[in-house]
Amino acid sequence: MVKCRRKLNIEKIAKDTYYLHGGTDEEFDDYMDSIFDYYNEIGFDITVVDSEVPFSIDRDNYRFNGAIDLIYKNQNGEYGILDYKNTIFKDYNREKYAQQLLTYILALKNDSKYCDIEITEAKIYAIKSRSLIDFNIGESRLATQKEEIQNTADLINSHEFNKNESSYCNICEFLKYCNG
Fold it and tell me: How many C-beta atoms lie closer than 10 Å to residue 49's C-beta?
């Protein structure tokens, strides 16, 4: 069972992110039940190191900002990152999620607080399907992701990129670049 203090911390984190991303009061209890099932039944025994960790990757021709849901330490003392998705996991999203997690690890390598820790695990927890998914985060994947970010930045800077329309287009800070 989730300890009371940890339960309150989890609820605070969940509320902060749930409503930020358009969650409704009607679904919040199911959302919380799924999160607590994750902690109670999947047996993922971790120590939370930090949550909602903001990051910025700054290079000569781009800046990439975001936030990492959770940095943790496992029972073996190894560090990992976890991203919560309020969705049902579909395998066709696996590569997109892998790229996101790899980007987080690259960001931590440039963060003065976390640059000395090695992230050995990267996971997604899909809340609606109550699925914990592990991702391969080897050095070659990190190098490829770093290169892909640079290539994407180069394309954006040269105005040669494909627009990916979504419900977030109207609030995207890059709206002026793609006429979204």
Answer: 16
Which amino acid is it at 121?
Answer: E
The residue-averaged pLDDT of 45-61 equals 86
d(CA 56, CA 52): 13
Give the pLDDT confidence of 88-113 residue by residue, as tens digits: 888 878 899 999 999 999 999 989 99
pTM of the model: 0.75
Q: If DSSP codes are grouped into helix, strand and coil, which group holds residue 79?
A: strand
Q: What are phi and psi of 75, to 5 degrees?
A: -65, -25
H/E segment holding residue 49: strand 46-59
CA distances, 93 to each of 62, 65, 90, 97, 157 (Å): 25, 21, 6, 6, 27
* 18, 86 contact by CB (below 8 A): yes
Could you tell me the two tokens for 2? 């989730």
3-state secondary structure of 105: helix
How many residues are there in the chain? 180
Q: Please report which residue ranges of the chain form alpha helices under DSSP H.
A: 4-20, 25-41, 94-109, 139-157, 175-178
> Is 122:108 a contact under the CB 8 Å cutoff?
no
User: Dihedral sign, CA of 103, 106, 110, 113?
Assistant: positive
Residue 36, CB-side half-sphere exposure with 13 Å CA sphere: 16
